Amino acid sequence: MIPPITGKLRKRFWLDLTTAMGLGVTAGYAYWYGIHLKHVQKQEAYYLRLERARQQ
Predict the structure, then answer these.
(1) What is the DSSP string of 1-56?
(2) d(CA 40, CA 46)
(3) Sign of the C-alpha dihedral, residues 28, 30, 32, 35?
(4) Residue 1 domain-assigned?
(5) CA 35, CA 29: separation in Å to the nearest integer?
(6) 11-52 residue pLDDT tens
(7) Taking CA 46 as the corner, what is the angle to CA 40 and CA 51, rounded to the nearest 5 degrees?
(8) Residue 10 falls inside a structural domain
(9) Which domain holds residue 33?
(10) Residue 6, domain member (yes or no)
């Protein structure tokens, strides 16, 4: 009979959890500062142009 493997899942779980959290946070920051804020800046500039054109 093959003896059960014990403790391996618990050790691997913490590594997987911390890696997933780290990569998730990194991806979130990359999206927020790399894509989202640039999109919002373009949108704000567009609405500012519309408002200035409307006022003239």
Answers:
(1) -PPPP-SHHHHHHHHHHHHHHHHHHHHHHHHIIIIIHHHHHHHHHHHHHHHHHHH-
(2) 10
(3) negative
(4) no
(5) 10
(6) 788 889 999 999 999 999 999 999 999 999 999 999 999 999
(7) 125
(8) no
(9) 22-55
(10) no
The Cα–Cα gap between 53 and 56 comes to: 5
Q: Does residue 9 register a pLDDT over 80?
A: no
- pTM for this model (two decimals): 0.66
The tally of domains found in the chain comes to 1
Q: How far apart are CA 6 and CA 36, in angstroms?
A: 45
Confirm whether 32 is domain-assigned: yes
**How many residues are listed for the chain in this entry?**
56
Q: Which residue type sits at 24?
A: G
